[in-house]
Amino acid sequence: MTKSKSALLFLLGTSLLFSASAHAETTPQKQMSSNPITIYLDGRQLQPEANPLNVKGTVLVPMRGLFEAQGAKLTWNNTNKTVTATKDRTTLTYRLGDHTANLNGQTINLSVPGQISNGYSLIPLRFVSEALGSTVTWDASNHSVQISSSINYETSILWGVNLRSSPDSTSVSTNIEMLSAGAKVHVIREVDALWLEVRTEDHQTGYISAKPKYTDYSSPALIEQQGDALLAYGKKYLGTPYVFGASPDQTATFDCSSFVKRVFQDTLSIDLPRVSYDQAKVGKEVGIGELRKGDLLFFSARKLDIGHVAIYAGNNQILHTYSKELGVHVETFDSQWKKRFVTARRVF
Predict the structure, then answer these.
(1) 143 a catalytic residue
(2) N vs C: which end of the chain shows fewer Cβ within 10 Å?
């Protein structure tokens, strides 16, 4: 079996499957319709959005839940009914109703095409060989598919964090368990700037904080979202008065470093030092030509080598405070500021 064909089976069915012939030998079609199929992934029962279908001896199941449970990320084009699934270096494109799929540029045949049923996208179950690294068995007595996957638990917990039932830290969400520092999880998807859906090594699925202190997980998309969240929060204080030496324990007034400290703490739980000189020692240095949203910019001021700090807001803009007249505001990172620029630091 070629690598690409194996990868296809992983997507179209590692999670998925037993062959039509095996099905025909062990389970008559009549019995299929009267007894619902249950699907277990690593011992945990999956709850598909719609009931599996039996089409000419081949079982079709909802694809999204099974793909995402094993780490594949899906996008859906409703115009041409095409799904694109990506996992690591594998990209699968499939249009419902077709007898072929495209895997990394190679055409692969499907014995039974996928279809839409009651608004859900269904794809055929496929028999999976041992060579895929996943084991799929048919349990005739329980009328179930048992799937043992080979998930890579790539993300380390850096600080104890709650695994929650929903992406919410309020009482609406219940704690499933506490994940200790050193534990490993698999990130299923980025919910938003602040939450990740994950799977644990003991096969629990839930949500954890995406804030940088809790895990070593990162991605360009998550960093972009977190930069936007940081700036949106900071802009809530536009116009807040400037007072030199303002306490970081309140939000009625700010100076440059108390503002930056408060924004990073409240948004991403990043605890920065109090004054700009010490803040310039945190994180890693980045060049002025590689700035991204959320980077810290440091400038000379008040005859100090470093006496002012601002947050880079993208598009050559900076968010900061230094003026009693303007308070917290956004302005252009122009030649005046570039003359006083000392260094930039990246802290997430």
Answers:
(1) no
(2) N
CATH of 220-346, one of 3.90.1720.10, 3.30.300.30, 3.30.70.660, 3.40.50.300: 3.90.1720.10
Given the residues 23, 99, 203, 320, select the one marked as catalytic: 320
> In CATH, which of 3.30.1050.10, 3.40.50.1380, 3.30.457.10, 3.40.50.300 is domain 3-148?
3.30.457.10
Neighbours of 324 (CB within 10 A): 11
**Nearest-CA neighbor of 277 among 345, 175, 227, 194?**
345
* Res 83 pLDDT > 50: yes
CA 219 – CA 254 distance, rounded (Å): 32
Which ranges in the chain belong to alpha helices (H)? 3-9, 20-26, 29-34, 63-69, 220-235, 256-268, 276-279, 335-340
Instruction: Round to whole Å and give the CA distance between 189 and 104.
Output: 22
Catalytic residue, from 23, 186, 308, 329: name it: 308
320 among known catalytic residues:
yes
Phi, psi of 258 (to 5 degrees): -70, -35
Nearest to 332 by CA among 297, 290, 284: 297
What percentage of residues in the chain have a pLDDT greater than 90? Answer: 55
Q: Is 266 left (phi over 0), alpha (psi -120 to 50) or beta?
A: alpha
Output DSSP code: residue 180. Answer: P
DSSP string, 197-239: EEEETTS-EEEEE-STTTBS---HHHHHHHHHHHHHHHHTTTT
| CA–CA separation, 119 and 125 (whole Å) | 19
Known catalytic residue: 256? yes
Q: What is the mean pLDDT of residues 34-42?
A: 77
Alpha helices in 19-133 (DSSP H): 20-26, 29-34, 63-69
Q: Any idea which fold 155-209 has?
A: SH3 type barrels. (2.30.30)
Catalytic residue among 23, 186, 256, 329: 256
* Model pLDDT, residue 154: 93
